[in-house]
Amino acid sequence: VHARLARGSAGNGCSCITPGLWKAKNRGKVRLRFLLDFGYATGLRASELVGATLGHVQTDARGDHWLRVTGKGRKLARVALPPLAWDALAHYLAERELPIAPMRWRPETPVIGSLEADSGSTISSVRLSGVLRRFFLVAAKSIEADHPPLAEKLRRPSPHWMRHTHATHALGRGAELTTVRDNLRHASVSTTSIYLHSDDVKRARQIGDAFTTDRRR
C-alpha cells in the first residue's frame, strides 16, 4: 500500500507521497505517543517538556530516575520519572535512532525532538500545544456519536490536561497529597488538593458499611 501511494498516479492528479513523507508521518505518531505517556506520567508543564534535555535526566544511588526542571519563578527542582516515563523515553530514543544507555547520551539532546531535525532540536511550546490540540480534536470526532458531552469537552483542549490528569490519577491510586504536591511543585498543598475527586461508588459503599441497620443500637 505504501509503495502504491508513494508512486502516486499521474492520471488522476494525485500528489506523490514520498518515502520521506511516510517517515515523517511515522515519526510524528511516535512523538505523539511519547508526549502522551511522558507528559501523563510526569505531570510536567508544557514549557518544562520542551525545555528538557537528556542532560537533565538523573539516576540516584537507589536507581530511581529524576528530571531536573526549571519551573515557575525560575525555581530549580526535580520531578520523578516513574517506569511509564522511563520506558517511554527509552522507546522514543530508539525510534529516533539515539542511544538508550545514559552513558552514551549527549547532554544537549532535547527530550522531545523536532520532526525536521529530530536528534538536534526541539519544538516550541506553541507547537507542542498544537500537536496535542489536533490529537484531542481527532479523539473528539471518533467518540462524538457515543459520548457527545465528552467529545464537546475534548474540542476545548487545555495544555494542562495531562498535568491535571497526572495529579488526579496519582491521588486516586493512593499517592500521598504531599508527594503529588512536591512532584507538581505546588507552593501549597491546598493547590494540589483540588485534584482530589470523590468516587461516588466507593463513598456510598464505605458510608453504607459504616452505618448499616445492624449498627443502629
Automatic annotation (TrEMBL):
Coiled-coil intervals: none
GO biological process, alphabetically ordered: DNA integration; DNA recombination
Keyword DNA-binding among record annotations: yes
Keywords: DNA integration, DNA recombination, DNA-binding
Domain of life: Bacteria
A GO molecular-function descriptor: DNA binding
The keyword DNA-binding belongs to this UniProt entry's keyword annotation: yes
Matches recorded under PROSITE patterns: TYR_RECOMBINASE
Residues annotated as domain Tyr recombinase: 1-209
Alphabetized InterPro entries for the sequence: DNA_brk_join_enz (IPR011010), Integrase-like_cat_sf (IPR013762), Integrase_catalytic (IPR002104), Tyrosine_recombinase_XerCD (IPR050090)
Family (UniProt): Belongs to the 'phage' integrase family.
Protein name, as recorded: Site-specific recombinase XerD
Organism of origin: Paraburkholderia atlantica
